[in-house]
C-alpha cells in the first residue's frame, strides 16, 4: 500500500507544480502583453470600418484582456462629434491566440445611470480585417438620441436590440450577404427642421416611435416604421440594400407624415404653405446612407 500512496502523493505534487507553472506563465503573458499595440489596432480597425475619427483622452487595461477608453469623441466630416464617457473592450483570449476576434464592447454616455445611457455589442470574426464571417449582437439601454443622432434630433430616448450575421462571401456589385433582425423603440422624440426638397419642415414632436428591420441576403426590409404624438403621426416602408463599404448601402424609403393640429400651427408660424391637419404628406428618402436625399413623392 505504501508505494501506491507514495505514487498518489507524487502525482498530486506534480499536478500542483504544473498548475503553478501554468499560472506563472499566464501571469508573465499578461504582464508582458503588448497592450499599446493592441489598443492602437482596435481603434484603427474601428476607424477604418466605420469611417469615424476616434479620439480618447486616456485609456487603461485590466485583467485579463480588458481595455477601457475614457472621454471618447467620435467624429466625421458630415456630422458633429459624439461624446462618450467610456468605451470598454473585453477581448476573448482563446480566440485571440487562435487568430480570431471576440470583442465584448460596452459604451457609456456622459451622465449614464446603471440602467440607462449604455450600449453593449458582442463581435465575433475570423480575423481583425473583419472581411470574413462576422456576427454582431447587442442591445441599447435608453440612449439619449440628442447626443448621437446629429442636428435633426433634439430630444429622444431610444432602446434597441439587434442580431446580425455576415458570411463574408463576395457577391456581384459588392453587396453584403447578411441575415439578421433589428428592433428600435423611441420615446419623446423631437425632430428638428428636416429639409424636404426646397422646403424645411418645422420641428416635429412624437410621443413614441418604433422601427424593425429583417435582413435576408443583401436586403434589409422595413417591417415596421411608425410613430405618433401631438404633432401628428408618420409611417414608412422600404428597404436598404447593403453594400461594401457600409456607408454606400442604398436606401429606398417612402415616408408619410399626417399632420396634427400642433404641426399645422407651427407651419403657419414659419410662413410655410398650409398643412391641414389630417392631410398626409408623402416624401421619399433615397441614396447611399452617407448622403440620403429627401424629396417630395
Can you tell me about this structure?
- This protein is 21% helix and 51% strand.
- The chain has 297 residues and is an alpha+beta fold.
- The strands form 2 sheets. The protein has a 14-stranded antiparallel β-sheet with strand order 1-2-3-4-5-6-7-8-11-12-13-14-15-16. It has a two-stranded antiparallel sheet with strand order 9-10.
- It is elongated.
Topology overview:
Elements: H1 2-32, H2 35-50, E1 53-62, E2 66-76, E3 79-91, H3 93-97, E4 101-108, E5 118-125, E6 134-144, E7 153-166, E8 178-191, E9 195-196, E10 199-200, E11 204-217, E12 219-229, E13 232-241, E14 250-259, H4 261-269, E15 281-288, E16 293-296
Antiparallel strand pairs: 1-2, 2-3, 3-4, 4-5, 5-6, 6-7, 7-8, 8-11, 9-10, 11-12, 12-13, 13-14, 14-15, 15-16
The average pLDDT value, as a whole number, equals 77
Distance between the termini: 93 Å
Low-confidence stretches: none
Helix residue percentage: 10-25%
Query: What structural class results from the helix and strand content?
Result: alpha+beta
Radius of gyration: 25 Å
Q: What string, H for helix and E for strand, traces the elements in order?
A: HHEEEHEEEEEEEEEEEHEE
State which percent range the strand residues make up.
over 45%
Shape: elongated
The strand line-up of the biggest sheet is 1-2-3-4-5-6-7-8-11-12-13-14-15-16
Number of helices: 4
- DSSP, total strands: 16
Largest sheet data? 14 strands, antiparallel
